[in-house]
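Bumping my old thread because nobody answered last time. Still need a sequence for this structure:
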């Protein structure tokens, strides 16, 4: 399997994350005109001083106990189900998450 560098497919969306669960919604991506993908890659960038926890909404409501952590000032790419909304939460204010849909890692 050959890894492909991340290629953005949509504009970046940002959210000032708080201690209450919040959601970013996304439309499904098409794969070069061949229809809806079964999965897509999201690049998440956490700028700030708080860890941010996230989950695809198909997994339920995100909490700081069940969410996938992204440390302060870090960037990670994940494969998620196509069309998934993304839930975010932080222990306190102080971080903004930037989410970009694309392909590759």
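Sorry it took so long. Here it is:
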């Amino acid at each position: 399997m050959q890894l492909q560098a991340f290629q953005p497919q949509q504009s970046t969306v940002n959210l000032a994350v708080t201690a209450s669960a919040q959601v970013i919604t996304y439309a499904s991506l098409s794969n070069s005109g061949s229809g809806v993908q079964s999965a897509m890659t999201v690049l998440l960038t956490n700028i700030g001083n708080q860890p941010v926890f996230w989950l695809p909404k198909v997994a339920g409501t995100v909490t700081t106990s069940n969410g996938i952590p992204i440390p302060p000032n870090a960037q990670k790419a994940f494969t998620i189900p196509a069309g998934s909304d993304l839930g975010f939460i932080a222990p306190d204010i102080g971080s903004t998450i930037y989410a970009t849909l694309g392909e590759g890692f």
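The chain has no helices and nine strands. Let me know if any region looks off to you.
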